[in-house]
RNA sequence: GGAUCCCUAGCUCAGUUGGUUAGAGCGACUCGUUUACACCGAGUAGGUCAGAGGUUCGACUCCUCUGGGAUCCACCA
């Protein structure tokens, strides 16, 4: 045996060996029971980071463990196209070449996007392989491949037929920089010190003698005010109700000019400001709700680029911040500004680009979620959540569900499969089904209204989560042969031909046995998979849902490029080897617990496990060299290490270590089965180093020949127990222990007690 | 404004139904290189388990409150 373990050599050699032997592939025809793990598809945005590495390494350990236990394991990998995030990444790249979406145009841009996708893909693959991930690469799925397209179309089409889809003008959270509506869950909040402006609205017919003062942080939106609301029980404003006031900023000739009506609404907070609230339905969610209930008109003073509209008079074209300043100045000049106060509040910003989010009115597609939510809530008990508290957290969110806005103004993603007759329905309104069709490809039929053929597809794409929410089903080929008629009727033959009954075969793996995620996307992704799977397949998507914590920096901040506090898993692996890096990660996998690390602390940990590799290597060296020494006397025992030499009573040390080993088998098995990988790895580590090596092996030196069968047995079982976590080293030593001709440790049977 | 989680050795963290002297790794210190291993071995120091009450024969573990930190939710203009 070599003096030192060469981890790099072993990694290359064994990964290739496993792939060549097809040891990672699932077999739907196998009589073995299924155990399925669905890899959360990383976003197509660049390199895999430490968090991904942790996720994949957790899944891999479970997959390897279950294979050894005799399951037909499916560990299915994939990648998510990640609409907004991908576009953002590509945009930055293009900017360096002085290019942009606008300059390229849709077709050229898409061409470029697909190329970029391939580059990222290649980098993902190399990382996965060097991390030793034993996924079934033959079944890898990308969220924008034809298989998923079928699923997504089916999803949309069924929603449509079930009358759960609608399009309408709604107040959405709009990111002016990304140029698209985003979900509440895609926003963050940032504490900002701003000003609260106390603005006077004089009452009509009092010659400026009476007025209402309104406190607002957004004087620039006064142009779009349509009312002032007060609380019904507020005595201060009883006499004002139903009267009209003049807003101090308005555009001459604009609808309603300067008039706003004073209304009552119990949603107004009497304690805040003056207790009077200006109502701007076009630019504030609460105002929108109040405005809708009181049948107030909608005015727009800010457009989708974050600039003031024509309604804003002199301020037209200005950015919001500038407009605010100028509006304040104007109010001052007009004597309408009573006072200003410092005001700290949290402002919604876009999670991705950190731009201030603007509530705006936009035409968007929505899915009615109530029926899906009800079904999900009734089935939450069927899923085992780790930590268990997530069941309640998710249930509460689902209970308070609101309709899901699924359209995004992007190019990267699934174009909404709706076609409008450009002649009969030029504004692409919805509700007139005669001149619109849901179809994957351009309809061949004619418009029922005009009898002609002017079909134009909806410009927007579907929210990324509309497809990733179907991940558990899409990856297995749902709906297979059960797909709906419109797919077949309205689409090209290529899709029909590809419409294999894969789903029937792959249902063996559904629901998935195990899924994992960071808590961050519990609503965006996890809750939706639960709702969608139950809705479409009538089953929960997975029976075990594991939420891991996040690794943060030493101050507890998230890793981010801008902070430069990230840790590169590739670099770690380069320096300490894959197995050691994996072990370092397992120590952070207590369910739901965040961990803190920087480059240095991660290195310390990885180094420790690198040393552990060496330790184990040396243990094996000792055992195997001893076996050479004792070759003549106990040949039999060497060939079958577990076998106790007949007629010999075991030495008390042998009994002891075998007892300890049995206890280890029990605890490791139990800990992996309950997804406590940090405990499993710790106990194996402790046993091998501090029980087996430090105590037993030392003692055995005085009676080597007699101890040899036990030494070999304990080593062999230790390797098996460790294999899910340190696959390369254990395979390497396994081959040395059992002889090069024997089969992979992956095919060995998970140890059980004597 | 609600909700959840966390505060254990200098640092990063374990501690699964409450039960004997509270653990690991790294770091520190003292010894030790006699062939498995210095990427090592033997050992030492270091914690009133955030604080205060309560339940209990017994609490790091359960309950209440206080302080500190994190996260999530919510229509605070």
UniProtKB/TrEMBL annotation:
<dbReference type="InterPro" id="IPR009080">
    <property type="entry name" value="tRNAsynth_Ia_anticodon-bd"/>
</dbReference>
<dbReference type="InterPro" id="IPR001412">
    <property type="entry name" value="aa-tRNA-synth_I_CS"/>
</dbReference>
<dbReference type="GO" id="GO:0002161">
    <property type="term" value="F:aminoacyl-tRNA deacylase activity"/>
</dbReference>
<keyword id="KW-0436">Ligase</keyword>
<dbReference type="GO" id="GO:0006438">
    <property type="term" value="P:valyl-tRNA aminoacylation"/>
</dbReference>
<keyword id="KW-0067">ATP-binding</keyword>
<dbReference type="GO" id="GO:0005524">
    <property type="term" value="F:ATP binding"/>
</dbReference>
<feature type="domain" description="Aminoacyl-tRNA synthetase class Ia">
    <location>
        <begin position="503"/>
        <end position="594"/>
    </location>
</feature>
<dbReference type="GO" id="GO:0004832">
    <property type="term" value="F:valine-tRNA ligase activity"/>
</dbReference>
<dbReference type="GO" id="GO:0005829">
    <property type="term" value="C:cytosol"/>
</dbReference>
<dbReference type="Pfam" id="PF08264">
    <property type="entry name" value="Anticodon_1"/>
</dbReference>
<dbReference type="InterPro" id="IPR014729">
    <property type="entry name" value="Rossmann-like_a/b/a_fold"/>
</dbReference>
<keyword id="KW-0648">Protein biosynthesis</keyword>
<feature type="domain" description="Aminoacyl-tRNA synthetase class Ia">
    <location>
        <begin position="13"/>
        <end position="485"/>
    </location>
</feature>
<keyword id="KW-0030">Aminoacyl-tRNA synthetase</keyword>
<feature type="domain" description="Methionyl/Valyl/Leucyl/Isoleucyl-tRNA synthetase anticodon-binding">
    <location>
        <begin position="654"/>
        <end position="752"/>
    </location>
</feature>
<keyword id="KW-0963">Cytoplasm</keyword>
<keyword id="KW-0547">Nucleotide-binding</keyword>
<dbReference type="InterPro" id="IPR009008">
    <property type="entry name" value="Val/Leu/Ile-tRNA-synth_edit"/>
</dbReference>
<protein>
    <recommendedName>
        <fullName>Valine--tRNA ligase</fullName>
        <ecNumber>6.1.1.9</ecNumber>
    </recommendedName>
</protein>
<dbReference type="InterPro" id="IPR013155">
    <property type="entry name" value="M/V/L/I-tRNA-synth_anticd-bd"/>
</dbReference>
<comment type="similarity">
    <text>Belongs to the class-I aminoacyl-tRNA synthetase family.</text>
</comment>
<dbReference type="InterPro" id="IPR033705">
    <property type="entry name" value="Anticodon_Ia_Val"/>
</dbReference>
<dbReference type="InterPro" id="IPR002300">
    <property type="entry name" value="aa-tRNA-synth_Ia"/>
</dbReference>
<dbReference type="Pfam" id="PF00133">
    <property type="entry name" value="tRNA-synt_1"/>
</dbReference>
<dbReference type="InterPro" id="IPR002303">
    <property type="entry name" value="Valyl-tRNA_ligase"/>
</dbReference>
């Amino acid at each position: 045996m070599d003096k030192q373990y060469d981890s790099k050599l072993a990694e290359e050699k064994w990964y290739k060996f496993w792939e060549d032997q097809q040891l990672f592939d699932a077999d739907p025809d196998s009589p073995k029971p299924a155990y399925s793990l669905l890899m959360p598809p990383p976003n197509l945005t660049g390199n895999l980071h430490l968090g991904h590495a942790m996720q994949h390494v957790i899944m891999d350990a479970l997959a390897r463990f279950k294979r050894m236990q005799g399951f037909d394991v499916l560990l299915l990998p994939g990648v998510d196209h990640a609409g907004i995030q991908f576009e953002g990444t590509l945009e930055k790249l293009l900017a360096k070449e002085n290019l942009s979406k606008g300059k390229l145009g849709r077709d050229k841009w898409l061409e470029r996007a697909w190329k970029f996708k391939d580059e990222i893909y290649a980098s993902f693959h190399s990382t996965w392989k060097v991390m030793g991930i034993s996924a079934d690469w033959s079944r890898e799925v990308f969220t924008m491949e034809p298989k998923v397209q079928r699923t997504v179309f089916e999803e949309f089409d069924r929603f449509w037929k079930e009358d759960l889809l609608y399009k309408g003008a709604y107040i959405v959270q709009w990111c002016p920089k990304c140029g698209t509506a985003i979900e509440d869950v895609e926003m963050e909040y940032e504490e900002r010190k701003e000003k609260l402006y106390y603005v006077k609205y004089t009452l009509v017919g009092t010659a400026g003698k009476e007025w209402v003062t309104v406190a607002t942080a957004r004087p620039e939106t006064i142009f779009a005010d349509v009312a002032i609301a007060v609380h019904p029980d507020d005595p201060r404003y009883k006499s004002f109700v139903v009267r009209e006031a003049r807003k101090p900023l308005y555009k001459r000739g604009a609808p309603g000019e300067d008039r706003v009506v004073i209304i009552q609404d119990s949603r107004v907070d009497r304690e805040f400001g003056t207790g009077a609230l200006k109502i701007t339905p076009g630019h504030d969610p609460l105002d929108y709700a109040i405005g809708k209930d009181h049948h107030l008109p909608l005015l727009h003073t800010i457009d989708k680029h974050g600039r003031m509209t024509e309604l804003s008079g002199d301020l037209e074209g200005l950015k919001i911040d500038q407009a605010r300043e100028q509006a304040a100045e104007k109010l001052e000049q007009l004597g309408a500004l009573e006072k200003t106060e410092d005001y700290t509040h949290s402002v919604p910003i876009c999670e991705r680009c950190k731009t201030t989010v603007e509530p705006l009115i936009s035409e968007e597609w929505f899915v009615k979620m109530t029926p899906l939510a009800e079904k999900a809530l009734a089935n939450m008990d069927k899923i085992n959540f780790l930590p268990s508290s997530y069941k309640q957290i998710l249930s509460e969110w689902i209970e308070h569900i609101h309709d899901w806005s699924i359209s995004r103004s992007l190019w990267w993603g699934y174009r909404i499969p709706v076609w409008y007759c450009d002649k009969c329905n030029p504004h692409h309104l919805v509700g007139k089904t005669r001149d619109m069709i849901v179809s994957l490809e351009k309809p061949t039929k004619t418009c029922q209204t005009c009898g002609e053929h002017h079909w134009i597809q909806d410009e927007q794409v579907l929210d990324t989560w509309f497809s990733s929410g179907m991940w558990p089903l899409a990856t297995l080929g749902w709906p297979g042969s059960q797909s709906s008629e419109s797919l077949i009727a309205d689409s090209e033959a290529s899709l029909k031909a590809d419409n294999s009954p894969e789903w029937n075969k792959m249902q063996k793996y559904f629901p998935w046995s195990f899924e994992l995620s960071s808590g961050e996307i519990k609503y965006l992704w996890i809750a939706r998979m639960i709702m969608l799977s139950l809705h479409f397949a009538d089953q929960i998507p997975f029976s075990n849902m594991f939420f891991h914590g996040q690794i943060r920096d030493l101050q507890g901040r998230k890793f981010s490029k801008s902070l430069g506090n990230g840790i590169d898993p590739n670099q770690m692996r380069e320096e300490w080897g894959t197995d050691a890096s994996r072990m370092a990660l397992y120590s952070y996998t207590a369910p739901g617990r965040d961990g803190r690390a920087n480059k240095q602390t991660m290195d310390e940990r990885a180094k420790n496990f690198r040393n552990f590799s060496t330790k184990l290597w040396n243990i094996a060296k000792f055992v195997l060299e001893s076996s050479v020494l004792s070759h003549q006397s106990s040949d039999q025992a060497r060939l079958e290490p577990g076998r106790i030499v007949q007629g010999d009573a075991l030495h008390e040390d042998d009994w002891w270590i075998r007892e300890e080993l049995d206890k280890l088998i029990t605890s490791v098995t139990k800990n992996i089965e309950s997804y406590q990988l940090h405990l499993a790895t710790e106990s194996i580590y402790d046993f091998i180093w501090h029980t087996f090596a430090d105590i037993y092996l030392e003692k055995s030196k005085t009676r080597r020949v007699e101890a040899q069968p036990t030494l070999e047995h304990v080593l062999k079982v230790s390797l098996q127990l460790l294999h899910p976590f340190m696959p390369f080293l254990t395979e390497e030593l396994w081959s040395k222990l059992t002889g090069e001709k024997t089969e992979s440790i992956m095919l060995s049977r998970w140890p059980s007690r004597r």
